[in-house]
Amino acid sequence: MAKKLIRHLNDISKIHHRAAFTDVLKHTAPKPSQFLTLAGERYSCRSFDTREVPDELVESILEAARLAPTACNYQPVHVWVVRTEEALEKLGKTTQYLYGSRLVFIVGCNPSEAWVRKYDEKNGAEVDAAIVGTHIMMEAADLGLGSVWVGSFDPAAIAEAFPEVAGWEIVALFPVGYPAGAPAPRHAQRKPIEEFASEL
């Protein structure tokens, strides 16, 4: 009888000990989603090594771009792949921000094919292109590649160097490749959520 009582008291003690854990939330709180983890790890890569990106990874990035949502699904966007020495040399004369990448995606939009907001005639082409560009960067990150959004380039020079882009408004360049550096010191600097978001 005494042994049974002692065993019972030991069981109660263990339950009480478990209930007193101060890190219960740590063990029960939901883990960050895979996307949230990926978004936190991705950074603007400004240094690439010389390895070429395999065709299958280029195709995967293009497919992610193709699947990007656009207003009314009009898809007024086009993506050009730049990776030959000749093409990279020509593109390098239009911007100084390729960072040694051997693969660049050019994203352009055609406002005449885009959805237009009726209230103020806001054209959605550039927003659609930005969504496509974001898909490019996130898929590259998921494949273990680095990327950076480049907005500093000479559009007229690109149009002259690449007649294929005629009729398209170039929105951004995306150098992609295997990272050869670390994130910039400012990468982790984010506004606190209380400053960044609010409820109406």
Please give a structural write-up.
- This protein has a domain at 44-180: NADH Oxidase, CATH 3.40.109.10.
- The chain has a four-stranded antiparallel sheet with strand order 1-2-4-3.
- With 200 residues, it is an alpha+beta fold.
- The chain is globular, with a radius of gyration of 25 Å.
- The protein contains eight helices and four strands; from the N terminus they run H-H-H-H-E-H-E-H-E-H-E-H.
Radius of gyration based on Cα positions:
25 Å
Q: Given the structure, what is the number of helices?
A: 8
Please mark out the parts with pLDDT under 50 across 5 or more consecutive residues, or reply none.
15-19
Q: Into which percentage range does the β-strand content fall?
A: 5-15%
Strand order of the biggest β-sheet: 1-2-4-3
Major sheet: size, sense and barrel closure? 4 strands, antiparallel
CATH topology of the domain at 44-180: NADH Oxidase
Written as H for each helix and E for each strand, in order along the chain, the element string is: HHHHEHEHEHEH
Q: How many beta-strand segments?
A: 4
The H-level CATH homologous superfamily of the domain at 44-180, spelled out, is NADH Oxidase
Helicity level, as a percent range? 40-55%
Q: For the residues shown, what is the average pLDDT?
A: 90
Name the structural class.
alpha+beta
- End-to-end separation in angstroms reads 64 Å
